[in-house]
TrEMBL record:
Record: residues binding Zn(2+) 1: H64, H66, D156, D309
GO biological process terms, semicolon-separated: 'de novo' UMP biosynthetic process; purine nucleobase catabolic process
InterPro entries: DHOase, DHOase/Allantoinase_Hydrolase, DHOase_cat, Dihydroorotase_CS, Metal-dep_hydrolase_composite, Metal_Hydrolase
List of catalytic residues: D309
Binding residue positions for substrate: H66, L67, R68, N98, N282, H313, F327, G328
SUPFAM superfamilies: Composite domain of metallo-dependent hydrolases, Metallo-dependent hydrolases
Catalytic activity: (S)-dihydroorotate + H2O = N-carbamoyl-L-aspartate + H(+)
Name of the featured protein: Dihydroorotase
Residue stretches in coiled coil: none
Keywords from the named record: Hydrolase, Metal-binding, Pyrimidine biosynthesis, Zinc
Lineage: Bacteria, Bacillati, Bacillota, Bacilli, Bacillales
Residues binding Zn(2+) 2, per UniProt: D156, H183, H236
PROSITE patterns the record matches: DIHYDROOROTASE_1, DIHYDROOROTASE_2
The EC number(s) this enzyme carries: 3.5.2.3
Length: 427
């Protein structure tokens, strides 16, 4: 028995919209029929989902997430994190290695993959670290980690401080045909500041994280990427200066790609209501000028893809306040509706653009065979109700943590059915 998804709205990157019937059989997309053709599918013996008026999209892909397992299961685990992802319409997620232990050995990669197979409801692809224990001192065994199934190398959570270490990592990754994914942060410019160096920090007498602490690494690394020929991917771009450097590097044919998070597209330091750690994340919320720069960068292709940086932390941890709480906010369950409401419904972006940056484009950047509704591809499908306006409610959050600044926001564009590898994993 398969699943017929009838009369759904499909959209491509050029925003061409068509109404289609999609048949899922086993874990594959078996048939796609143009509804205008008048061919009425034989649905007998199949489950039927009426998607009339709803968006039928390839399952969303999120290349930057923190699932916290192993080691920080009080914040999230693979069971809760993948269910939270499914609620947000994500069917493929790439998990960051800043767990405990960090993902720096084949054993830990295997642990994640085994756990994902038993506890997870969507596809989990791990990153391995660049350096052992993310300490920046010694490279991990890149070849063995690749063999075990990592999609790239990153010390996300911290920057790789040594240029020589980064260059060695890039050269090794390039020789294996693998990407380096960089959390860009120079520790000599940031000493534990909780927010951006700007108006909020000044008003509250706080130290601030300057834009240069991110951009200096971007500048350094695009030069190293040029020298080594590696595919270099920049995490959570937040500053105008980083955008400038990435744009320039792309003009010179350097193999650089980049990602941006919904919160950096939507919020600036001026929106932070007070000393509430649900507004604390790394990189921090910057100035309206930076927000404008990352929006333009996504629009002109300088920034390639949208990721959430889903970073769960418990309420107790966040209650420690702006100074002491850990950095990070949730991402999965509000990403699409936030961007649909604030960019598509306002006429700034087409629906096709938003969907492309959350599906096909991330698949292309990382060479994954997902993000498409083509016949024969894996049946990862997200059905989205584009009409219902609903508030973000804390009680409805599926993640084990609740740390998001978006509680109470009235949004439209809610995933209502998520199908991963042919199975309904959220409805
Ligand atoms: N982004 C964050 O604020 N926090 C992330 C680390 C990271 O992605 O850099 C985390 O692990 O909590
Ligand atoms: Zn990071």
């Amino acid at each position: 028995m398969g699943i017929w998804i009838l009369n759904g709205l499909t959209v491509d990157a050029n925003n061409v919209q068509t109404t289609k019937h999609v048949l899922v059989e086993n874990d594959k997309i078996a048939l796609v029929v143009d509804a205008l053709s008048g061919d009425v599918p034989q649905t007998e013996g199949h489950e039927v989902i009426d998607a009339a008026g709803k968006l039928v999209s390839p399952g969303f892909i999120d290349m930057h997430v923190h699932l916290r397992e192993p080691g920080f299961e009080h914040k999230e685990n693979i069971a809760t994190g993948t269910r939270s992802a499914a609620r947000g319409g994500f069917t493929t997620i790439a998990c960051m290695p800043n767990t405990r232990p960090v993902i720096d050995t084949v054993d830990t990669v295997n642990y994640i993959l085994d756990k994902a197979a038993t506890d997870g409801v969507v596809r989990v692809i791990p990153y391995g670290t660049i350096t052992k224990n993310e300490l920046g001192r010694e490279l991990t065994d890149f070849a063995a980690l690749k063999e075990a199934g990592v999609i790239g190398y990153t010390d996300d959570g911290v920057g790789v401080q040594s240029a020589q270490m980064m260059k060695d990592a890039m050269a090794l990754a390039a020789s294996l045909g693998m990407p380096i994914i960089a959390h860009c942060e120079d520790d000599t410019l940031v000493v534990g500041a909780p927010v951006n160096e700007g108006t909020f920090a000044t008003k509250h007498g706080l130290k601030g994280i300057p834009n240069e602490s991110e951009a200096i690494h971007v500048g350094r690394d695009v030069l190293l990427a040029e020298a080594t020929g590696v595919h270099y991917h920049v995490c959570h771009v937040s500053t105008e200066q980083s955008v400038r450097l990435i744009r320039h590097a792309k003009q010179f044919g350097i193999k650089v790609t980049a990602e941006v998070c919904p919160h950096h597209l939507l919020l600036s330091e001026e929106d932070i209501p007070g000393m509430d750690a649900n507004w604390k994340m790394n990189p921090p919320l910057r100035t309206p000028r930076d927000v404008q720069a990352v929006i333009e960068a996504l629009e002109d292709g300088t920034i390639d893809i949208i990721v959430t940086d889903h970073a769960p932390h418990t309420e107790e941890e966040k209650a420690k306040g702006m100074l002491l709480a850990p950095f990070g906010i949730l991402g999965f369950e509000t990403a699409f509706s936030l961007l649909y409401t604030k960019f598509v419904l306002t006429g700034k972006w087409t629906l096709g653009f938003l969907v492309d940056r959350m599906t096909k484009k991330p698949a292309d950047v990382f060479g994954l065979p997902y993000g498409t509704l083509e016949v024969g591809s894996v049946a990862d499908i997200t059905i989205v109700d584009l009409d219902t306006t609903k508030a973000v409610l804390k009680e409805e959050i599926v993640s084990r943590s609740k740390n998001t600044p978006f509680i109470g926001w009235e949004l439209r564009g809610w995933p209502v059915v998520t199908i991963a590898s042919g199975k309904v994993v959220y409805s």
